[in-house]
Design goal:
Largest sheet: 4 strands, antiparallel
Order of helices and strands: EHEHHEEHEEHHEEHEEHH
CATH class: Mainly Alpha
Structural class: alpha+beta
CATH superfamily: Outer membrane efflux proteins (OEP)
CATH architecture: Up-down Bundle
Shape: elongated
Strand order of the largest sheet: 3-6-9-10
Mean pLDDT: 84
Number of domains: 1
Low-confidence stretches: 1-24
Strand content: 15-25%
Distance between the termini: 13 Å
Radius of gyration: 41 Å
CATH topology: Outer membrane efflux proteins (OEP)
Number of helices: 9
């Protein structure tokens, strides 16, 4: 690891300012922020619940293979008993054929109570559902990892932004000290009639602008910290102080691995293939179930001269075979749709792979340019600082004008801002490269 440090005076001032501004707040490293988010971030908590839900759905699918036992009971009171037509020959052997007589059968009170057992011996839909839920659980696990990756990416970006704002405040404070010192010198020269009133006003304006800029940066810094706390899942009121030094790897050679988006897409493709296989099986294969019933049937009569309520046992066991002969080509239409979905999934996987390769190459170029820019702009800061100090000495000796001082100060501030922009560009490009090469989780 290599530390990106600002010149020594600024770093010492930074440490002093942190002690003054942030009190006794605990210093949080980037890794501590990420670890806290792992426990307290609500998005991750919901994702873990989704994993648990997926596990329960998988168990639910397997539970369809367990025998089912149901209790059934019903009571019927017939205000009018059902009619049935009986041949007249039943009542009179001499009656001609083709003539019937209506007759009512049964008693008004009917009670049924039984236990029913059903157990699937083979059901292609049940076994297909079990396979499908396994793949769905895998997808949910990958989506959880993607949420982790997104949280890591978000927290890292916020942390880097906060560090950059810290350094901006250091530069502003350093420049403000220089400007106030210059203002005193110009005011002294003005009192001695060696400087114009406009010169004093120019420096006062510069001091005022720096003070305003400092307030804006401090406000933005607090906003970034609040966003960081929210991403971590901690209270906004909790004090949070981050590390001052920005750390990054000088080498960006990451071993490419399959990114989560591609792995999720491949799992979804397997899910579609599993659903297609289930449809094909349910189209040609029968379902076989063991069934059984045991219970009692009661018949009652409450009229004269003989009221009664008698129960009679009933029970049977058997096998139920179900084979789909024709369902209006509904299954065939579903199979055709699913085949097209599989093709689209394969095309999307290839497209995403090519896109990822292109993005990796672009991120490498951005990282390389930003890394060179960090080194170059750091040298520019040192040079601008030297020029500013030399111009200040020349101004005291009367060789340099106030305009020269202002120009040197502006050049220094511009070099500082360019350096900070280069640092944050590098950190974000490096973070993006880690994500695109599938190394963002392993680099924590």
């Amino acid at each position: 690891m290599k530390l990106v440090n600002i010149h020594k005076q600024a770093l010492l001032l930074l440490l002093l300012l942190i002690g003054v501004y942030r009190g006794q707040a605990q210093v949080w490293t980037l890794q501590q922020c990420i670890d806290t988010a792992q426990v307290r971030n609500k998005s991750l908590q919901m994702s873990r619940n989704s994993i648990a839900i997926g596990e329960q759905k998988e168990k639910e699918a397997k539970a369809n293979l367990v025998p089912k036992v149901t209790v059934n009971a019903d009571y019927k009171y017939f205000t009018n008993l059902p009619y049935q037509l009986m041949p007249l020959s039943t009542f009179s052997p001499t009656a001609p054929d083709g003539q019937f007589k209506e007759a009512q059968f049964g008693v008004p009170h009917n009670i049924n109570a039984n236990l029913q057992l059903s157990m699937p011996v083979y059901n292609p839909q049940v076994y297909g559902a079990i396979q499908t839920t396994k793949i769905v659980s895998e997808i949910i696990e990958l989506q959880y990892q993607k949420t982790e990756e997104q949280i890591y990416f978000e927290i890292s970006n916020l942390y880097y932004n906060a560090q950059i704002l810290q350094h901006q405040m250091v530069f502003i404070d350093s420049n403000l000290i220089n400007a106030e010192r210059l203002l005193k010198n110009i005011q002294l020269l003005h009192e001695q009639l060696l400087a114009k009133g406009t010169d004093v006003s120019k420096v006062k304006l510069q001091v005022s602008q720096l003070a305003t800029q400092k307030e804006k940066i401090e406000s933005k810094y607090e906003q970034v910290l609040n966003a960081l706390k929210f991403a971590m899942g901690i209270s906004i009121e909790q004090k949070l102080q981050i590390e001052a030094d920005i750390q990054y790897q000088s080498s960006n050679e990451y071993t490419p691995s399959s990114i989560l988006d591609i792995r999720i897409l491949k799992a979804q493709n397997r899910l579609l293939s599993s659903e297609l296989s289930t449809l094909n099986k349910s189209r040609y294969l029968p379902s076989l179930n063991l069934i059984g019933t045991y219970g009692t049937t009661g018949f009652g009569y409450n009229g004269l001269p003989n009221s009664f309520l008698n129960f009679y046992p009933i029970g049977f066991a058997g096998i139920l075979l179900s084979y789909p002969l024709f369902n209006g080509t509904v299954t065939q239409r579903k199979i055709s749709q699913k085949k097209l979905e599989v093709q689209n999934s394969e095309l999307q996987s290839g497209l995403l792979t090519e896109q990822n390769h292109m993005q990796v190459e672009n991120a490498k170029l951005q990282t390389l340019v930003a890394q060179k820019s960090v080194t170059t702009t750091l040298e520019q800061i040192k040079l601008a600082q030297t020029i500013y100090e030399q111009t200040g000495l020349q101004q005291k000796e009367g060789v340099a004008s106030l305009t020269d001082i202002v120009l040197a100060d502006n050049a220094l501030r511009e070099a500082q801002q360019t350096y900070l922009s280069a640092v944050i560009d590098y950190l974000k490009a490096d973070l993006e490269l880690k994500k695109l090469t599938g190394n963002i989780s392993t680099s924590k």
